[in-house]
Amino acid sequence: MKLSHAQISFNASGTPVADTFTDVYFCDARGCEETDYVFVEQNNLLARWSEFKQSQPNMPFVIGETGFGTGLNFFQTCHHYKRMLEEGYSLPRLYYLSTEKFPVTPADIQQALLHYPHLLPFIEALLPQYPMPLVGCHRMQLLNGQITLDLWLGDIHDILPQWQSPQIETHASGLIDAWYLDGFAPSKNPDMWNDALFAQLARLTKPQGTLATFTAAGDVRRSLNAAGFSTKKAKGFGKKREMLSATLTELHTRESTINAHTLPYYHRAAQHTKHRPLARVKILGGGIASGCLAYLLTRQGIQVEVHCADSDIAQGASGNDLGGFYPQLNAQASHASQIHASSFVYAKRFYDQLIAQGAQFEHDWCGVFLVGFNDKVNARQHALRDAQVWPESLIRGISSAEAQAIAGVDMPYEGLLIEHGGWISPPQLVKSLLTLAIETGLCQIKTQSTLTPDQISVFTQSPAHAVIYATGASSPQLPIPPLPYRVVRGQVESAGVIPQTQALKTVLCHKGYFTPAVHGYHAMGSTYVKEDTRCDYRESEAEQNLAMHQQSLQQCAWMQEMQLPQTGRAAVRCSTPDHLPLVGALPDITQQLNDYAHLYQAKPAYTYPRAQNIAQQYILTGLGSRGLTTAPLMAEILVSQLLGQPLPVSRTIADALCPNRFLIRDGIRRLDYLARFKGNTAKE
Ligand SMILES: Cc1cc2nc3c(=O)[nH]c(=O)nc-3n(C[C@H](O)[C@H](O)[C@H](O)COP(=O)(O)OP(=O)(O)OC[C@H]3O[C@@H](n4cnc5c(N)ncnc54)[C@H](O)[C@@H]3O)c2cc1C
Ligand SMILES: C[S@@+](CC[C@H](N)C(=O)[O-])C[C@H]1O[C@@H](n2cnc3c(N)ncnc32)[C@H](O)[C@@H]1O
Question: Which residue CA neighbors atom 24 of ligand 2 most closely?
């Protein structure tokens, strides 16, 4: 879903003022001093950072903020963190989770912070990653990954209930070490400062976690006390007489909020804790899922061994020469659409960062044109335009004239443009990811290698070890509990360029996809053959592919002139009945079938036990036809889960990806999961 940008004016001192709230973002000319005094000092951050690694080795320090605004608080916090690193302090990784309902435009951020030149390096590092106004979490990295900013766009009252402690949610759990409670004066923004906010702050704060706010309003103090915080008044900054700081001391007050937010059957617990760090991971697989996992894990200092069953990496579905890079979006922000939108913007940022690090994989962010090629598709596309659910920078309607200019070839169709999409060479991408992982000195690749159940059981005897199955369409053959996979063969053609297609400069997408020419060929994809796992090249499917393109693009004379392709490649996709990936711990199916046998009785969720999973074993598969879009975010979710770091997606989205979701749904509908999925492929 899209949001509106903040409407900002600048007062005589050059300080930004929000037109909607008629309040300043920070104190005139002394914004950084205010941040230092109110938020950094009253949360005692610098001393806590310097000692944190001794008491909580391997754990991140997490700051929560209400109201990102211009980012001044964030940038000033980065400034202190970097200075301390340069002074030789050994600091924990920093996670900065902020919410924002009215994102400030990059231009307004630059103007607002002109008076603070020491922040410029951080602003310059962030702005290229700064998100479009799309609801959800936008994860960005600074200082080579030492600082992670999770900017959650949307209303704080929708966002905070979606944050989760990485450990089991109990009295003793928590996510946030220190809060910056900003967000305009309570009198100017009463909708934000209500009891629901304080209950969430208490639920999410770690025991003895702290909070600071510029206001000393009596209502705020009383609400904080009622939620379990011990509050203290301090002298206010500048013209303000008083401000508040607080520590979470009463834990029992949050019991009801915790229960209301826990779905025990989608329970996720970090394997890595301060007492039991994760050190080594073996990944089975050699495709894009494994590449993303190996890259992300090694960046966090984890040793990785990739076991690939084939004689080389990227021989499975990730072996096609070219693939289209774009999300699948509907007129409604369904879970599936949200996952695609978030995955796409995350993946684009991820790929741009790889390229900045010197990764070399052929790609072109040349845009993807979704052709409105018949009445039904046109009606769907118009519904999406009218719904105005997505930012225009993500997807927008274009006329046939614009389409023609963008495509560079005759294009008598209107449609939708995904301007940041394009194409990528998947095997080159996988090689780049694994090369970067190997360069850390922490990653080894073993080809023609897999692991037996005995080897896995020996390896996972150490609590510092984990195994991840990223085995694509071979997953149904694994000796692991039955999950509902759908395997679908596909063939993509290498279609020779003809003079009329030479000028094509964007990916065309209809029932299939057709890329601009690369090395003399267009990728023309692809067929769908359910439950067929053979990878032989078939002329009959080449004919089907060509016919499908010629029929969809009937009005493009140039497509009718294309010759039957002579070469191509077939591979098998792994999908699921709801078309969403499988990401998370491997469920202990026998135990869960027993524990959740009576879900259909619809008792309150918290009366059920927590999901039992197979210790230290995880899965990432089911990327279907969009692995280039979804793999990076899905890998980031799994790595964050394993390492006990904040998740880059909402609780609802993480639940929607949980590998046991079909078992739970079947329990609710009183269906026999094993009878339906025992053969490891879906019968729906
Ligand atoms: C014809 C076709 C066209 C496609 N077009 C696009 C597109 O345009 N855009 C897009 O985004 N996506 C596209 N896809 C989908 C995309 O290719 C997949 O989503 C993605 O490659 C899946 O990656 P993966 O790592 O999960 O699986 P794979 O790439 O299939 O990798 C699985 C790996 O697991 C290894 N393995 C299997 N079993 C074992 C074992 N027991 N032990 C060790 N290793 C094992 C295999 O050797 C292989 O390396 C297409 C797919 C097909 C088939
Ligand atoms: C005082 S400003 C924050 C200043 C900011 N910390 C900075 O460094 O610029 C308050 C911010 O809270 C945001 N905000 C107000 N109500 C909100 C809500 N309900 N949900 C999320 N953000 C909100 C405003 O849009 C604004 O950007």
Answer: 67
Bridging pattern class, strands 94-100 and 61-66: parallel
Q: How far is the CA of 191 from the centre of ligand 2 (A)?
A: 12
* Cis peptide bond prior to 526, omega within 30° of 0: yes
Residues 619-678 pLDDT 10s: 999 999 999 999 999 999 999 999 999 999 999 999 999 999 999 999 999 999 999 887
At 286, which amino acid appears? Answer: G
Do 406 and 369 touch, CB atoms closer than 8 A?
Answer: yes
State whether the beta carbon of 183 lies less than 6 angstroms from ligand 2: yes
- Same-domain check for residues 251 and 397: no
Strands 205-213 and 176-181: parallel
**493 CA from centroid of ligand 1 (Å):** 17
Q: Check pocket membership of 154 for ligand 2, CB cut-off 6 A.
A: no
Q: In the chain, which residues have pLDDT < 50?
A: 682-684
Tell me the CA–centroid distance for residue 281 and ligand 1, in Å: 20
Kindly state whether residues 95 and 217 are assigned to the same domain: yes
User: Of the bound ligands, which one is closest to the alpha carbon of residue 469?
Assistant: 1
- Round to whole Å and give the CA distance between 313 and 306: 10
Phi/psi of residue 227, each to 5°?
Answer: -80, -10
Expressed as residue numbers, the domain containing 50 is 8-260
Among 239, 260, 281, which residue terminates a domain?
A: 260
* pLDDT at res. 313: 98
Q: How far is the CA of 538 from the centre of ligand 1 (A)?
A: 19
Give dist(CA 448, CA 461) in Å, integer: 24
Q: Output Rg (C-alpha) for the chain, integer angstroms.
A: 26
Kindly report the protein residue whose alpha carbon is nearest to atom 20 of ligand 1. 627
Task: Identify which ligand lies nearest to the alpha carbon of 509.
Answer: 1
> Is there an atom of ligand 2 within 6 Å of 575 CB?
no
Distance, in Å, from the CA atom of 449 to the CA atom of 560, rounded to the nearest integer, reads: 46
Query: Do 513 and 643 fall within a single domain?
Result: no
State the Cα angle at 426 between 151 and 617, rounded to 5°. Answer: 65
CB-defined site of ligand 1, < 6 Å: 284-290, 307-310, 315-318, 320, 323-324, 426, 450, 470-474, 490-492, 513, 525-526, 571, 573, 621, 623-629
How many domains would you assign to the chain?
Answer: 3
Using the mean position of ligand 2's atoms as its centre, give its distance from the Cα of residue 125 in Å.
22
- The residue type of 136 is G
Angle at 650 between CA 645 and CA 654, to 5 degrees: 80
Closest residue by Cα to atom 5, ligand 2, is 69
| Among the bound ligands, the one closest to the CA of 152 | 2
Q: For residue 94, give every residue at least 6 positions away whose Cβ sits within 8 Å of its Cβ, in sequence order, or none.
A: 49, 60, 61, 63, 77, 81, 146, 147, 148
Q: In terms of domains, do 381 and 397 share one?
A: yes
Q: Is 72 in the pocket of ligand 2 (CB under 6 A)?
A: yes
Q: Is 401 exposed, middle or buried (0-12, 13-18, 19+ CB in 10 A)?
A: exposed
Answer yes or no: is 682 within a domain. Answer: no
Pocket test for ligand 1, best of 527, 573, 579, 638 (most atoms within 8 A of CB): 573
CA distance 469 to 621: 8
**Inter-residue contact 291 to 430 (CB < 8 Å):** yes
Whether residues 299 and 377 fall in one domain: no
Q: Identify whether residues 532 and 597 lie together within a single domain.
A: no
Nearest ligand by distance to the CA of 284: 1
Query: 96: Cβ below 6 Å to ligand 2?
Result: no
Sheet holding 242-248, edge to edge: 136-142, 147-153, 94-100, 61-66, 176-181, 205-213, 242-248, 229-235
CA atoms within 13 A on the CB side of 289: 32
Q: What is the largest CA-CA distance in the chain?
A: 80
CATH number, residue 100: 3.40.50.150
Q: How far is the CA of 5 from the centre of ligand 2 (A)?
A: 12
Same domain, yes or no: 625 and 562: no
Give the total residue count for the chain: 684
